[in-house]
UniProtKB/TrEMBL annotation:
SUPFAM superfamilies: Nucleotide cyclase, PYP-like sensor domain (PAS domain). The keyword Coiled coil applies. The keyword Coiled coil applies. GO terms for molecular function: diguanylate cyclase activity. It comes from the Bacteria. Its EC number is 2.7.7.65. Its cofactor is Mg(2+). It comes from Mizugakiibacter sediminis. Residues 222-274 form the PAC domain. GO terms for cellular component: plasma membrane. This is diguanylate cyclase. It catalyses: 2 GTP = 3',3'-c-di-GMP + 2 diphosphate.
Length: 464
């Protein structure tokens, strides 16, 4: 990195911390606050905190203990316990979600606690992030799912939900009463169901069932009259309907099957049509709500790629699978060179456009199996399963070259940006994904030191 003295690095680190929207503080070995970032100060000012010192010099453990003694202090006690466990060396880091009730609303936060050494002394780093919106989105999602199940159980008709493989993932009580149970098979085995077309008495073939046609062809079938042999050997006449389910991209993801027993009362046709239409409309609305809430909870709003939380949710299992199967797994970590200067010169709107363009180009050069996420600020991360360091370097170079060649309008000027990145391949000593990412981060620093606008692989001599 040009001008890479300790002072310059410290200044850059300070600028980076101040650029974060998350509140960060550093504690010494006794728990005394020795440094805070700009977001911490802004939060303290906005919440009637100490504006003279912003709590620098105060003992954060004492603050937590005081909060824990209050009636609503369970969250503060959890944070206190987590910090103490890290300070005692029981673990290197921890993450704790906790509620923090404000006078007008209930707010939720997450704190990341990590221990580090600086100039021979132990310190504790705290990063607080408000997750109220995410928790509210998750609660709405859970409520929507619970409501759907209650509605399905309340319906007097049989409703089955199948996945794209044709396996039943939910059947309500009415459906199981009609069929005298459930048979969990896919479309290839639908011939195991015994049914005949009521109009001509012909046996229904496996590929003629409404569920098969919904899943394979996207067909919607309404009120097909058939006679079935139930699993207990009894015979019934039912109206059989199927509606394909589609995800946000329009791809068939499964089907809803609706059954109505009309053995005794064929006059129920109109009731079934109304119920089917209700279920269909309910499903469309629910799919929209679920897609929207899932997107809000898992996607970076600015760039449209996965957020940091979603990255670890998906990348941790990918990393574990690679360990079990002894297959290559690499991580690319890159950030935008001089991004703060770009923001200062051209404004945050241009900076946001740069972040979106970088994300779009990175997305173009990654595979469907790869996982691209915004790691924080101007930093992005890519998990590359079944990819060794050489392959990861190729992907990284394509991304770097694509970004370097791209231009954006900023008023009457065209601007371009570059990235620096680090690549690390999983090794025997990488027992956690965090460790692998740290090695990629070391390689990223090597790229900065090499003059930026380049990618560097992690080498054994880099340490870590």
């Amino acid at each position: 990195m040009p001008g890479g003295s300790i002072e310059v690095r410290s200044a850059l680190a300070g600028d980076l911390l101040d650029a974060l929207d998350m509140q960060a503080a550093v504690l010494d070995a006794r728990g005394t606050i020795v440094a805070v970032n700009g977001a911490w100060k802004r939060f303290a000012s906005a919440n009637q905190g100490d504006r003279s010192t912003y709590y620098v010099g105060s003992n954060y453990l004492d603050v937590c203990e005081a909060a824990a003694r209050r009636a609503s202090g369970a969250g503060a006690q959890a944070v206190l316990n987590g910090i103490r466990s890290v300070m005692r060396g029981e673990r290197e880091r921890c993450t704790i979600e906790y509620p923090c009730d404000a006078p007008t609303q209930r707010r939720c936060f997450v704190v990341h606690v990590a221990r580090f050494r600086h100039e021979g002394a132990d310190y504790i780093g705290l990063v607080h992030e408000e997750i109220t919106a995410r928790k509210q989105a998750e609660e709405r999602l859970q409520e929507a799912e619970a409501t759907l199940r209650k509605v399905l159980e309340a319906l007097p008709i049989g409703v089955w939900i199948m996945d794209r493989e044709g396996h039943i993932i939910h059947g309500n009580s009415a459906g199981k009463r009609i069929w005298a149970g459930a048979l969990y098979v896919g479309p290839e085995q639908f011939g195991e169901y015994k049914g005949w077309w009521l109009s001509n008495g012909r046996r229904i073939a496996a590929d003629e069932w409404a569920a098969t046609r919904a899943i394979r062809k996207g067909e919607t079938s309404i009120d097909e009259e058939i006679r079935i042999e139930c699993f207990d050997g009894t015979s019934k006449i039912i109206l059989n309907s199927a509606v394909p389910l589609r995800d946000a991209a329009g791809t068939i993801s499964g089907a809803i099957i609706v059954n109505q027993d009309i053995t005794r009362r064929k006059a129920a046709e109109e009731q079934l049509r109304r119920a089917t239409a209700t279920v269909d409309a309910m499903n469309r609305e629910l799919q929209e709500v679920l897609a929207r809430e899932q997107d809000n909870a898992r996607t970076d709003e600015l760039t449209g790629v996965s957020n940091r939380r979603r990255f670890f949710e998906l990348a941790e299992p990918m990393f574990a699978a690679a360990q079990r199967s002894c297959t290559p797994f690499s991580v690319l970590l890159f950030d935008i060179d001089d991004f703060k200067r770009c923001n200062d010169l051209f404004g945050h709107q241009v900076g946001d456009a740069v972040l979106r363009r970088v994300a779009d180009i990175a997305r173009e050069h990654t595979r469907g199996a790869d996982l691209l996420a915004r790691y924080g600020g101007e930093e992005f991360v890519v998990a590359l399963p079944e990819t060794d360091a050489e392959g990861a370097m190729t992907v990284a170079e394509h991304i770097r070259q694509g970004i370097a060649a791209s231009r954006l309008r900023a008023g009457d000027r065209e601007i371009g940006v570059t990235i620096s990145g680090g690549v690390a391949e999983m090794q025997v000593g990488d027992d956690t994904l965090d460790r692998l990412i740290r090695r990629a981060d070391q390689a990223l620093y090597a790229a900065k030191d090499a003059g930026r606008n380049c990618i560097r692989p992690h080498a054994a001599e880099d340490g870590g």
